[in-house]
Specification:
heterodimer; A: mainly alpha; about 60% helix; B: alpha/beta; 4-stranded parallel sheet; 11 helices; 8 strands
Chain lengths: ~425, ~260
Amino acid sequence: MQYLPNILFAVVLIFGITFFVKNVKKLLRNIKLGKAVDRSDNSALRWKNMIKIALGQSKMVRRPVSGLLHIVVYVGFIIINIEVLEIIIDGLFGTHRLFQNYVGAQLYGALIGTFEVLALLVFVAVIVFWIRRNVITIKRFLNKEMKGWPKNDGNFILYFEMVLMTLFLVMNATDTPFQEAGIGNIVSQYIAPLFSDLTESTIHLIERGAWWAHIIGILIFLNYLYYSKHLHILLAFPNTYFANLNAKGQFDNLASVTNEVKLMLDPTADPFATPAEDDAETVPEKFGAQDVSDLNWVQLLNAYTCTECGRCTSVCPANQTGKELSPRAIMMKTRDRVEEVGKNIDANGKFVDDGKTLFDTIATEELWACTSCNACVEECPVNIDPLSIIMDMRRYEVMEKSAAPQELNMMMTNIENNGAPWQYNQMDRLNWKDEE
Amino acid sequence: MNVPTMAEMMAQGKQPEVLFWVGCAGSFDDRAKKITKAFVKILHKAKVDFAVLGTEESCTGDPAKRSGNEFLFQMQAMTNIEVMNAYEVKKVVTACPHCFNTLKNEYPDLGGNYDVMHHTQFLKLLLSEGRISIEGGSYKGKRITFHDPCYLGRANDVYEAPRDLIRKLEGELIEMKRCKRNGLCCGAGGAQMFKEPEKGSKDINIERTEDALEVKPDIIATGCPFCNTMMTDGIKNKEKEEVKVLDIVELIANAQDL
């Protein structure tokens, strides 16, 4: 019987981790629904970007208030996880504060003391975050895409963190030997008196309760990630690694189009040539993106990485002037759609056409409002590229459906006819030199 | 004015130092033509051996590409590349950031490899080589603010070349609240120049003009013919015509009384 807690702990741990691994596999499968794109070049620069931007939070602090608060929560999250390691070992082997035996009371006290201070700072930062989201009017948290689940999701994460930090501090405050030793209880010593009237066994019960709730809470949080915008704590790293390294103004040249254009410009090409044998069977590649499977895997990774902070939308010239477009909403709708396709595959074994596409949720009005100014791309703290999705969807609209706005059709006709977006004679191109 | 074409140069067996890519706006738009001419005056003054393609130049395809018409873009690109490669063009300078971006970043993949510069970068180079001098006298005490074109700034990380030139003019360079990488678009990019904006509460160029007017400038300096149009329209809308919208190359040419 004495091993019951250990066994119970192992079961909870294995269950929590198995479920998480299952979801990670699903996540990877969904990301791989995207088309291939080569991002294996220049690994030195990619590592550097990841270290600077994801690990070093360099783009977060461009907005100092939220940036610094975020660093507090982020550093707290990473460092307090050392404590989780001890909790797991203690839980599995029935030990108590095992690390103390190895690192000595002083160092252990210093470590726990640091965790306690961080826990308090995280708690305070999270309260400020909650106030920013729910009390103060900060426009980017109030856009229309932030109603319902996205808003609740943001708050749930904050409540989770508040509860976890509280449990951690209560656990320390009710650990009588730890309080008696008096090393490292920097914060918890002020919480301990709250429990001083209780009997020793009750205090011990609270300590065990907090300990269990803390670790179970962490496992629940871990499994909540997949369903939440909070995935960014994991995906920010691969996302910054695989992000585009070219100049932001450089849009990719579609290779499928290059072949067609070369054929068109080739005077020796035979338009009546019979296509090669296997060509007749293959479906010609779609131009641009109609659905998530027409996007590349980095764009889908982008969608899962987005934590809906809305910095992109807050700098978008179209959004600021009241247009429908919100780069954040583009990312959210892309993720929703890839999730929907994923569930379809889960249910049917393979994707069965559901008659839906990205265009069901992303209106062409949003796409055509974009000025391709790259403000959203520049602003994203984890190098997400909403612009590339907008451009790929425009390509579908224009090349597959011929559905460009009428004025753009005129502009394009002019380019075709006279080599300029306006209706001027190409032969007049140099007239300016003789004009006064 | 004397503007040699590549064809004329070739007929004389000459190869110019640099091709001046004029662009559609620079060739046809009445306002942008003034920028083109100001730049040519400086090229003459600096004795730069240049030529234009003239009637052999055609749209780079930028607005088609940003509209999603990759076919038309690549048709334009390949045609232009064929012309430029036939003339063995090595170096290109243009006063349009859209042409600059497309020629520099999107042509190499299709076989067009050139050393492409925006005119502000080129002017800075001429300055550092001592081929031109910038006299600042006439701008002393003038407040000049620079509006970053998206396709020069964020798209290609060129922020300092235009500012260095303005500083040389001895005017007072004042920055808008949103500048450099945080600069707000004028509203013309992504082929918006050629269509009415989508439904909204305000036009982007008005928003940007307000940014500029906030710092009480005498001159709004630009480096893009489309930004120039948008800001000029914004100024008209605000009835603040005493504020001049001028391309940097015009500022320099005016200073030298060219």
